[in-house]
């Protein structure tokens, strides 16, 4: 059905732009780059498991196949970040230095709750030119139970039992909701042991790598317990 | 439909009314639907006595892989194949359209299709659409003028060259082709070179991935190898398989449809969503 353009204008309140004046704003420079990738963290009694893929990308290009998204800030807590890598490095530098100062002044390392609050305040201090970072802070609380704090870009945070951030978030979080919390199940069988949860996490990353082009190469897993930190690296798809 | 042809002719051939409508709609906040693009790396290599074309098998919708093993090598004629990059729907429909058109022509003229016929028909269709039909093709075939290889861009430009690459991974593939191509390759050498070029695209371009498809066209016939190389198997299999027992998923309501009486009745008690 052909509707003359002059009649079409009646349906719109604004004046139509003339064809010669159509400009596209897509060429404007942006200070942000999404280096993508996926991170996740799961807390269980006695330990916390943090995982992140090691691919650094920009658009369709791979910048590095071996870039860590995880950063151990204290003996008990780890920061996992997806988003812009430069902002991750800047944020990590700030936190490392500030936590070192805390340790010198207080003669004890900061607790996970303290680090969580510090991170939130640092992120909000850049409210009007934010860190392009989507963070998960994972660690052991005062009772050595695993806790995970999830953040948005400007510092709003909340405690959770597990969290996912990054380009593979939508693919992975629904699986964890079903497997770790028993969503949409009548009889919930929730895995309790570290091995079962590691099994699920590795499978989640391998599935995210299948369907998300930004996730792949290797997955790096840190397991924090009161005894120390264990590191596991497993390969993922490289295409 | 005669009035439409007359109307369009009187306007001078190019009808821009929809462009204005689209801009109006965008200004009102209408969001364009994302098309499934194929990301893609495709290459073509000319050798002594024929032509080889290869493609990866990943189709993407934004940053999600829509199809892990799609077919990007299309038949246009028994002696002419096309490798396609760009919008998946456009590629499928345009290739099917020209396949049918060429077949009709062959039936009418009783003569083999030629590569330059395909190029002319394609570019004549693509140019008036100003690049909005998103097909970037590598056309290869063998006809009475010998083996030929050309590429067609969405705006209607075409180039004849002994080696071609198109798609988001074209630069990765072109590096390999520029370094290793020579005149007078044998069929096997050309196939190996094409596979190597696609490999570069698969591993270094994230819009391309999964497997490699190859087709080699000589005057003896067409040799199509689907998934000649498969590199990236799923990296992890769960030790304890996922378990979804029957009747473990809560239903809010249950209905029963009686086919004989043609009526829908509600059964059972209403359940709450369990979180």
TrEMBL record, chain A:
Q: Does the keyword Acetylation apply?
A: no
Query: Under what name is this protein listed?
Result: Chromosome undetermined scaffold_12, whole genome shotgun sequence
A single GO cellular-component term on record: proteasome core complex
Note the Pfam families from the entry. Proteasome
**Source domain of life:** Eukaryota
State the compartments where it is located: Nucleus
Q: Give the residue range of the signal peptide.
A: none
What organism does this protein naturally occur in?
Answer: Paramecium tetraurelia
Keywords carried by this UniProt record: Cytoplasm, Proteasome
Which InterPro entries does the UniProt record give?
A: Ntn_hydrolases_N (IPR029055), Proteasome_sua/b (IPR001353), Proteasome_suB-type (IPR023333)
TrEMBL record, chain B:
Q: Check the record and name the CDD domains matching this protein.
A: proteasome_beta_type_7
What are the annotated GO cellular component locations?
cytosol; nucleus; proteasome core complex, beta-subunit complex
The residues responsible for catalysis, as annotated, are: 40
Reaction catalyzed: Cleavage of peptide bonds with very broad specificity
State its location(s): Cytoplasm; Nucleus
SUPFAM superfamilies (alphabetical): N-terminal nucleophile aminohydrolases (Ntn hydrolases)
Q: What are the alphabetically sorted keywords of the record?
A: Cytoplasm, Hydrolase, Nucleus, Protease, Proteasome, Threonine protease
- Gene Ontology biological process terms in this record: proteasome-mediated ubiquitin-dependent protein catabolic process
Instruction: Name the InterPro entries for this protein.
Output: Ntn_hydrolases_N, Pept_T1A_subB, Proteasome_bsu_CS, Proteasome_sua/b, Proteasome_suB-type
Per its record, what are the GO molecular function terms? Answer: endopeptidase activity; threonine-type endopeptidase activity
Record-stated family: Belongs to the peptidase T1B family.
The entry describes its oligomerization and partners as: Component of the proteasome complex.
What is the role of the protein in this entry?
Answer: Component of the proteasome, a multicatalytic proteinase complex which is characterized by its ability to cleave peptides with Arg, Phe, Tyr, Leu, and Glu adjacent to the leaving group at neutral or slightly basic pH. The proteasome has an ATP-dependent proteolytic activity.
Protein name as catalogued: Proteasome subunit beta
Annotated source species: Paramecium tetraurelia
């Amino acid at each position: 059905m052909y509707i003359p353009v002059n009649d079409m204008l009646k349906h719109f309140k604004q004046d139509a732009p003339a064809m010669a004046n159509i400009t596209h704003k897509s060429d404007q420079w942006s200070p942000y780059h999404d280096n993508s990738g996926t991170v996740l963290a799961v807390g269980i009694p006695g330990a916390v498991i943090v995982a992140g893929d090691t691919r650094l990308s920009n658009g369709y290009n791979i910048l590095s196949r071996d870039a860590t998204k995880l950063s151990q800030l204290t003996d008990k807590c780890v920061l996992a970040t997806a988003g812009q890598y430069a902002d991750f490095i800047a944020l990590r530098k700030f936190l490392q230095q500030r936590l070192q100062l805390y340790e010198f002044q207080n003669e004890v390392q900061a607790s996970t709750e303290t680090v969580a609050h510090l991170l939130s305040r640092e992120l909000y201090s850049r409210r009007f030119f934010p860190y392009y970072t989507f963070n998960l802070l994972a660690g052991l609380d005062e009772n050595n139970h695993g806790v995970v704090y999830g953040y948005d870009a400007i510092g709003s945070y909340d405690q959770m039992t597990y969290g996912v951030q990054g380009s593979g978030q939508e693919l992975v979080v629904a699986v964890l909701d079903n497997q770790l919390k028993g969503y949409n199940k009548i009889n919930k069988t929730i895995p309790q042991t570290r091995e079962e949860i590691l099994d699920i996490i590795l499978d989640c990353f391998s599935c995210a790598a299948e369907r998300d082009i930004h996730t792949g190469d290797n997955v790096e897993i840190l397991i924090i317990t009161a005894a120390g930190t264990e590191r596991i690296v497993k390969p993922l798809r490289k295409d | 439909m005669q009035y439409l042809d007359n109307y369009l002719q009187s306007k001078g051939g190019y009808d821009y009314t929809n462009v204005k409508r689209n801009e109006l709609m965008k200004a009102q906040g209408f969001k364009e639907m994302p098309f499934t693009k194929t990301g893609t790396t495709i290459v073509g290599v000319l050798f002594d006595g024929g032509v080889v074309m290869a493609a990866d098998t990943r189709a993407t919708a934004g940053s999600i892989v829509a199809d892990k093993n799609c077919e990007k090598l299309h038949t246009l004629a028994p002696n002419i194949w096309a490798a396609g990059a760009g919008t998946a729907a456009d590629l499928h429909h345009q290739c099917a359209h020209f396949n049918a058109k060429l077949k009709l022509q062959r039936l009418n003229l009783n003569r083999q299709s030629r590569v330059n016929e395909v190029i002319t028909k394609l570019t004549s269709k693509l140019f008036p659409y100003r690049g909005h039909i998103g097909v970037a093709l590598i056309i290869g075939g063998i006809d009475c003028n010998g083996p030929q290889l050309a590429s067609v861009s969405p705006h209607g430009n075409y180039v004849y060259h002994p080696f071609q690459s198109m798609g988001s991974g074209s630069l990765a593939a072109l590096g390999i082709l520029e370094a290793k191509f020579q005149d007078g390759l044998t069929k096997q050498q050309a196939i190996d070179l094409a596979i190597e070029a696609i490999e570069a695209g698969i591993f270094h371009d994230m819009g391309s991935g999964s497997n490699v498809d190859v087709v080699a066209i000589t005057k003896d016939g067409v040799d199509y190898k689907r998934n000649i190389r498969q590199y990236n198997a799923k990296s992890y299999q769960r030790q304890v398989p996922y378990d979804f027992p029957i009747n473990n998923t809560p239903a809010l309501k249950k209905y029963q449809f009686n086919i004989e009486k043609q009526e829908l009745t509600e059964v059972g008690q209403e359940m709450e969503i369990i979180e």
